[in-house]
Amino acid sequence: MSVKIGNIDLGDFPLLLAPMEDVSDPPFRALCKKHGADLMFTEFISSEGLIRDAEKSTQKLDIYDFERPIGIQIFGNNIESMMEATRICERANPEIIDINYGCPVKKVANKGAGAGILRDIPKMVEMTKQIVNSTKLPVTVKTRLGWDENTKYIVEVAERLQDVGIKAISIHGRTRKQMYKGNADWTLIKAVKDNPRMNIPVFGNGDVDSPAKAKLMRDDFGLDGAMIGRASIGNPWIFNEIKHFLKTGNYLDKPNMTERVEACKQHLKHSIEWKGNILGIAEMKRHYTNYFKGIIDFKPYRIKMVTSDSPNEINDTLDEVAIKFKDYQF
C-alpha cells in the first residue's frame, strides 16, 4: 500500500535519507536521490540562526527541483522562534517541515532543543501544535524513544503529536542518553505503529545498514518505511540495494572501484557548484575516506586529495585510485 505524508505519495515502503549535520547537504542529497532515496531532509537548521539571517543557517535552505519531495528540518527551544523559522522555511518552498526532537549532541540537547525537549513532553506537544498551526505545509517529527531508559514514553508521545496535527513520525530506536551506542531497539517503534489510534506513517531509524535489516523492519516490525542515516555515508547506493532486495530477494553487487571513483567525482563537482572552489573543496575533504573505506593503502591518496586545492589534481588522484585498486573487492 502506498505511503502518504499529506498529499505526498511516497510509494510502497519508502526509504528516507536522514538529516545529518555536515553530511546531508545538496551535493550528497543529489547522489542519494540518483541512487533511490524517496524522501530527503536538509541538514538540521537552527531556528535562531534563521531568524538572525545567519549565513550558515540560510544556506541550508538551498533546495533544488531534482531533490523533490524534500523536507526542511528545524530545531530550537523557543516556540515563537520555531514558528517564525517555519514561516521563513515556507518561502524556500519545501514539501514538508520537519521538527528535530532527536539530536543528542550536548550543545543542542542541553539547551532544551533536539532530544533535550524529551525532558519536557508538554512543551514538545505545545511547540508541535503551534508549528502545525503556523503553516499550510505538512509537518513531520523526528525523535527518539525518550531521554533515558526510565522515560521511554514514545507510544504516548507519538499519539499526542499526531493529535496536534503531524502527518508522519520518524523514530530513532535509541534514547538520548544512548547517543549512538548499543543496538537500536525497534520494538517500541513497532508498539507505536501497532497502537490502534495511530493513523499516520511511522518510519523506523537506527541501524538500518543492510537490505536484510530494511526487510526485517518492513516484514517483522510492520513499519511504513525506513530512514537511513550513517549507513548512507560514502554509500549512496544503499537505497537501490534495499529496493532491489525487497523486490527480488537478491543482493545487488557492491559498487566497484570505477563506480566509487565516479560517485566521488560527482560529489566533488556538486560541492564546487554549490559552494564554489574554496569551500566546495574544503567541505569535500571529510568524504574521501568514506567512499574508500577499508582500503589499507589508501592513505597516501587521501592525503594528496585533502592537501590539494585544485579540482583537476583531485580528479587526477581519483583516476590513480581507480587504476591502482581496480580489482579491489568491497
Give me a quick take on this structure.
The chain is an alpha/beta fold.
Global structural class? alpha/beta
How many helices? The count is 14
Q: Could you give the count of β-strands?
A: 11
- State Rg: 20 Å
The fraction of residues assigned to DSSP E strands is 5-15%
Q: SSE order, as H and E? A: EEEHEEHHEHEHHEHEHEHEHHHHH
Uncertain segments: none
Q: Distance N terminus to C terminus?
A: 35 Å
Mean pLDDT: 96
Q: List the strand order in the largest sheet.
A: 3-4-6-7-8-9-10-11
As for the CATH topology of the largest domain, it is TIM Barrel
CATH class of the largest domain: Alpha Beta
CATH superfamily of the largest domain: Aldolase class I
User: What fraction, in percent, of the residue positions are helical?
Assistant: 40-55%
Tell me the major beta sheet. Answer: 8 strands, parallel, barrel
Just name the CATH architecture of the largest domain: Alpha-Beta Barrel
Counted up, domains total 2
**Shape, please?**
globular
Characterise this structure.
By secondary structure, the chain is α/β, with parallel strands linked by helices. The protein has 2 domains: 4-248, TIM Barrel; 257-324, Orthogonal Bundle (Non-ribosomal Peptide Synthetase Peptidyl Carrier Protein, Chain A), CATH 1.10.1200. It contains 14 helices and 11 strands. An 8-stranded parallel beta barrel has the order 3-4-6-7-8-9-10-11, surrounded by 6 helices. Helix 8 (187-194) links the parallel strand 9 (168-172) and strand 10. Helix 1 packs antiparallel against helix 11, helix 11 runs antiparallel to helix 14 and helix 13 (299-306) runs antiparallel to helix 14. The chain is globular and about 55 Å long. The model has no long low-confidence stretch (mean pLDDT 96).
